[in-house]
Amino acid sequence: MTIATANISDYDAITQVIQHYIDGARSGRGGDMKPAFHDDATIYGYVGPDLFAGPIQGLYDWNDENGPAKDIQSRIVHIDVVGTVASVRLESDNWTGHRFTDFFNLLKEDGKWKIMNKVFHLHA
Question: Disulfide-capable partner of 28 in 44, 68, 90, 110 (CB 3.0 to 4.6 Å)?
């Protein structure tokens, strides 16, 4: 059995991808998040009893409407990398008064990491 290990450069690149997402939250501009995501990325999670689901453009639109989260505090609490796939868990607090746990699945395509989907939990 062979155990594949990720290069430190992959962890650094993934961290930079997630930083685009955080920077977009902070600025309140969906376009600032866009470099982190694949064009066909999706998002899923509940806002109260309502399912928020579909193309990632929904996140960009929500972020534009929500405005800047200047006081957001975010931490990557887990990165798991195997070859060309990765998962990330991100905890964010004070996103304009909201607390989120995000799970991202990433794919390394043409040497670049992109978020393929986001699944989130909005804490009460």
Answer: 68
